[in-house]
Specification:
Shape: globular
Distance between the termini: 34 Å
Structural class: alpha/beta
Oligomer: single chain
Strand content: 15-25%
Length: about 475
Amino acid sequence: DESRAMAGAADPTMTTDESTDPLMMMAAASGVATLVLASGLAYFMSRRSKVASTKQAEDATQPAIEVLDPAQYPGGHLTIYYGSQTGTAESFAQQIAGEGDDHGFKVHVVDLEDVAEDAAAAADGNLGGAIQAALMDPAKADANGCSRAVFLMATYGEGEPTDNAAQFVALLKDKAGITSNYNFEAELEAAAAKKVGSGASGEADYGEEKKGEFGDDDNADGTGATTTDAAFFNKLSYAVFALGNRQYEHFCAMGKLTDAALGVTGADRLAEVGIGDDDNDLEGDFENWKDTVMWPTLKKRFVAEGAAVEQKKKSKVVGGGVSELPDCPYEVEFLDGIAPAGAKADVVKSDEIHASTRHYFTAVDCPVRVSRELRTEQDPGSTVHMEIDISQAGDDLRYQTADNLGVLPVNDDDVVEAVAGALGYDLDAVFRLKPAPDHEHKHAALFPTPCTVRECLARYCDLTQAPRRSDLKL
């Protein structure tokens, strides 16, 4: 047996934008007799030019407001932010996006890591302010200047934020006066009792969150956040769904923290936080919250009573009937004439890789040398001792004691062949995954291609778990 193993991931690369200086104009005059008049005229013209140029520069920096068709989108804009480690929260975000048109909302799905990266590029020394501006983007605000957002927040490990949400959570904790991921409720209660006034606590380094860096070793004595900025998100209306597992001590900590921190920093809570338990039925919890809480609340608040929503659906004639098809952002291009051995994956930049599947691009094949069951037949459950040989991985995989090792299993050959046979796939066919038309601007590579259908089914598809309800609905 072989598995794909990976350890660590490169930090996201920050980019910077360039700006242009306003145009300047000079006036000159000659002759001794008219020197004073010319100087005055020059000053007047220069001031006019500077004022006009400044106004042009300000207009250029203002976001272009997208005017929506009220018949199609009576609810306006809705942005879904997700903090996801393995892609579940992201898939939930895409479900909401797929239903947005039906409910009258123009839905935008945004990775919280992208918010932090884009903000860093435009921060000019004020990263917190740039993240604030991104979440309360005037281009997506309603008539009252408020933005609407839903946060899907997974909890990673022992109550920590996911990698892509670490900077956002650090900002939230700083502005809410929170120093702990776990005891924030007690902190907020104590702060309310002391009537802590609003006020910015100073700019923090919103890097990846660690102990002692707006983490649980910080104290409210000046080493961490100590005050609450009660108006920081005062132009934001929000709802939160928390993803977690009750087997862990700090169940849904990040979703609960996000909900509480936004509430004390001025944001308008639209609905009570939703709770999803992966130990029971996470998808069922999400669908119940989405269908009975989120959409009804949003429509009651933002869609005028009696407003009709124009439906625009894609359809395709199949077998004499009409079947609705979901919008797919990807397109498959089969590469004829290329043998399986000749399929070499394209080089993809790190910022063009899907965040939740980036490990597929850095993982290396490592054989499993030892695998044995440690429990007896009389002992229920299973605990396996496994030894993975990374000696041949070289510099591509460095491991030290106590490091986390991610394992990406490979599907059994019999399962792969059975699936391919049932679907009529040629396992040796080579293909490339490309962005579909009109999706080029937001394309992110899911896994390395070109590759064979065999490699795709074996390495990049879950063929043994039951499909999600949302997939069956298609």
